């Protein structure tokens, strides 16, 4: 299993054929979106622009739960998953609600898009604030009942973004929101560690007068405004579910087993708390650097530009997924915006950390090669690059929440957290290994992948001296085929 | 002569335009013209000051019908590695021998390490400067070139016929020699090689190159304290 140029090229030509159709009107009035129920039941293979408020939330205590006194034991992971499961059960009530909101979560993060009331930005933000407050209270309530610290930090932005759905079948379907609002709300959350609800500059400009107070550059929401918003927009099902979850003393039973390899054979549809997998894996976060800007320019550039952006992101994402799965036997956890999170693992009976990280490094290099082919075949001159973060560690994989077949796919560990953080630390394109991945990697991998430019698959195959490198095969038969540099006398060597 | 090779993924390398010169039983190969797409000279890319390629130890000497095939194989590896060096700025560590006379010592050290089952440990010492053999270098007496504390067991772990550890002062006299001592000598020869090239300009295509540090451009930039 490895990367092959011809195979990648023909795959990419197939991805081009499945590009989501961009709606005839491109920019859909949020009333239309609401009426057609497009956000809650996003049609497959369609992309459109939607205006609304974006709520981005992060459970701040997630990271402290990942290990128990520094050790990522099975018990610590059980507790971590129980924590997420508890919150997902509450959040599930929003997904199933009929308010036309779109809610999505992964790891410790939640992302909601609020499009009603239609055509009224200030009211959409008000509704987003109400939701944010309700989420804060719900987290607190269930956390207290089950003995988990559950502080949540929320960011709110407003604007237009590109919505699209990709994937096939319920378990593999992902909805994307691309563009500034999805991104800025997330950045606001990442910018601090205190609990609270924060509005971006844009949202502050569009919110009702008197809602925001500023002192010494710090914004706070007026409490009377928040109370008013909460009274106006009920989110009753959220309240009801939080009460039910708080009262439910039955704890989920998490049972782990080591999966059969390659990881690509793991089926999320077969995973559940009592049937979870866990082993030493490398988490790979591959992100398209510069994509938010590219989409934002497209959104302002009209329908042709939007079509191009949809095509670029669709083709690249599908291809990165194919590289992960088909070429390296990896398992995609999920797409997050323009980013793909996946895991790879090696080791017949026991985990093999060095080989696992080596596979992840080669996978990253193959992603780079495929990424370049995608831009060539699509013919896009987009100023985008690929940034890949890799971290290694024990990682459980399962599905959480109470939505049966629609349950949320989850892989959560220090490695998943650090892989993402490592990727985010990359400026422009490139590759980086997390601390653990770097320490368990073999020398060649550490030298060429610890940090810096991400090389093509062919160069990586040579420098990591893989069995399939033609030079390796030649040297096996002709060990003297090793170039050197002759002493000063010319015509030697 | 034009050469194209196939890389790991099945992709082709670029077309290398080469000139092969044969004088009696000696063959040399150059880019056509020298410095066309490859550096005109770069030790780290195994291109000699006269532009000829170093495709292996004495690769172009005494070519016969039998050794001609091997010569092609060596050129093949060279072409493949040039493509990787051009993109990544590194030459695959396993596909090169130490420069100059150090090459002979490296081969001797490899034979010695092989005998002791230390093949990969030795490769690590050469390619990355780490591992037990590389760290053993600190215990070498710089004057004698031999290991200090001659009466303790040798670092390389060699034992005698009765499985008793061999002493440091005896080890190098046995069999193919002690890989730690040989590695010390190899490094001396490598340093000598680079000293001999002092004044030679760095081509700037490789990420790590001893000429870069000593080279006129970098040197003045540092002494002036300016970046560019
Ligand atoms: Zn050079
Ligand atoms: Zn020895
Ligand atoms: Zn140089």
Automatic annotation (TrEMBL), chain A:
Gene Ontology molecular-function annotations: adenylate cyclase activity
Domain of life: Bacteria
InterPro entries: A/G_cyclase, Nucleotide_cyclase
Domain spans labelled Guanylate cyclase: 53-189, 282-393
UniProt xrefs under PROSITE patterns: GUANYLATE_CYCLASE_2 (PS50125)
Signal peptide residue numbers: none
GO terms for biological process, alphabetical: cyclic nucleotide biosynthetic process; intracellular signal transduction
Record's protein name: Adenylate/guanylate cyclase family protein
TrEMBL record, chain B:
Pfam families named among the record's database cross-references: E2-Crich (PF20272), E2-ntca (PF20298)
Domain named Prokaryotic E2: residues: 6-92
UniProt domain Cysteine-rich: residue ranges: 99-211
Domain of life: Bacteria
Stated name of the protein: Uncharacterized protein
